[in-house]
Write a structure and sequence with these properties.
With 167 residues, this protein is α/β, with parallel strands linked by helices. It has 6 helices and 5 strands, in the order H-H-H-E-H-E-E-H-E-H-E. It has helices spanning 3-21, 23-41, 50-59, 66-70, 106-114, 126-138, and strands at residues 63-65, 77-80, 94-97, 119-122, 144-148. Strand 4 (119-122), helix 6 and strand 5 form a beta-alpha-beta unit.
């Protein structure tokens, strides 16, 4: 045997000893590393970022008046978050009276996700509709709108300013 081949054999032996010595660590770390690389290389491993999520709220493109809701084409799914049926009786579509605390149950979220047309959230308190809209949007629901009595709603007029006295 030549020197070169002996050196290569010695390297192989030392590598095998190293693998035997740390085989438990390798058996645990290597699969975790592979899973992390696989997860981070995917395109859809995270939901949309916060800026993209909040964009419709800033532009108010997620807000619709009852008059605008009546002019929508397609099959509307109207979710009344209040206990009483009110102005939404003017709209055409499937009306579901769902209490706000039940909207996020699995069967309702599945119904909203599977719906092909616009989903209109209505409450006399537009802030409640906005909260439900944000949560459903974060869950991946699309084509969801907040239905209001008028486009000149006081709740949507002002920008949020945090309380500076809480420091």
């Amino acid at each position: 045997m030549s020197r070169r081949q002996k050196a290569e054999d010695k390297k192989k032996e030392s590598m095998m000893e190293l693998i035997k010595k740390y085989r438990l660590v390798i058996a645990v770390i290597l699969p975790i590393l592979i899973l992390v690389l696989f997860r981070s290389s995917g395109l859809n491993h995270f939901k949309n970022d916060a800026k993209k999520q909040a964009e419709p709220s800033v532009k108010q493109s997620n807000i619709m008046t009852i008059e605008q809701g009546g002019s929508l084409s397609g099959k509307n799914l109207i979710i009344n978050l209040d206990k009483e049926v009110s102005q939404i009786s003017k709209l055409t579509g499937d009306v579901h009276n769902i209490p706000a605390d039940s909207v996020l149950t699995k069967n309702y979220v599945t119904m909203i996700m599977k719906h092909d047309g616009p989903v209109l959230l209505f409450s006399l308190d537009p802030g409640l509709s906005a909260k439900i809209w944000m949560i459903l949007t974060q869950l991946g629901c699309r084509n969801i709108y907040i239905l209001t009595n008028s486009s000149d709603n006081e709740v949507f007029k002002y920008k949020f300013r945090p309380d500076t006295l809480l420091n």
